[in-house]
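=== RUN LOG ===
request id: a7f3
mode: sequence -> structure
chains: 1
length: 314
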Amino acid sequence: MKISVILPCFNGAKTIAIQLEALTKQQWSEYWEVVVVNNGSTDNSMAIVEQYRDRLPNLRIVEAHEPSQPRRGVAHSYNTGVKAATGDAVVFCESDDEVAPGWLTAMGEALQQYDFVAGALEYRKFNEAWQLGTGEHNQEKKLIQCTLPPYLPYASGCNLGMKRSVYKAVGEFDESVLGSWDTDFCWRAQYIGIELHYVPNAIIHYRYRRQYRAMYRQGKSWGEAHILLRKKHEPDINWGKIPVLRYLLGICSYLPKGFVRIHNRTAFTEWLWGLGWEVGLFKGLVKHVVFPSRQISQQLVTEAVRPTTTLSSD
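=== RESULT ===
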């Protein structure tokens, strides 16, 4: 089985060499390639990638960004990478993380047995104690379980793998749900009977954001994406007007909590990310539900949530 490693990149000069170095140490018994997807980088990240031509002989760079067009998100990068890949299966990693020794072998062996897999995320190599907090870390020991409809497990896109037939059956990654594209794809696959399997020995070292601004922005982005995800997968939900006020009051009640946590870096970090999440929920509700733009509304209405296609045999 030929495997394509899809590695998206946008201005990853500070970290991508660590990922590429780790990939040079990976092994697979058959042909495998690395497809770096450049999504409009303006730093020297692609020059760094070029330095690995001799050490990753099947390395390719594909462009996901048209300079005359607005830059699109990571889901577009992965769609571009899958379409350019030549492998029978594709596995995903990102430019700010690091694949652990044996990652590719573990993913490849799992894909010989299953159609759709997700590896584990490890959080201690790159992150300090104050970043880790006290809570459970997603995908460290198992798949992430959703506590809202459709109550299905999912995994982060930074350590997913699938046979090409899965991508064909489920369809492209949905860019309209923003950062929830990976959750959306996992659920859509399960709607048509494709089970997601956890591979504990396919480990990626995950890097948290260190700057407060970046933490807040990530929480905000994920909160907005969560609203889009719920709108798509819960089409019968009755939003009404009350949630807008409830979410706004939620932000107001959440704000004072930060003042009592400001002297504890871990607690303040968790609060800041949570504040971004609350703001993102409110923004998503107002922008995409109460006053949805015509373009996004049309995408959500016309796209089938539960596709009826079946898994192809190739």
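=== NOTES ===
The longest strand covers residues 197-205.
The two ends are 12 Å apart (CA to CA).
=== END ===
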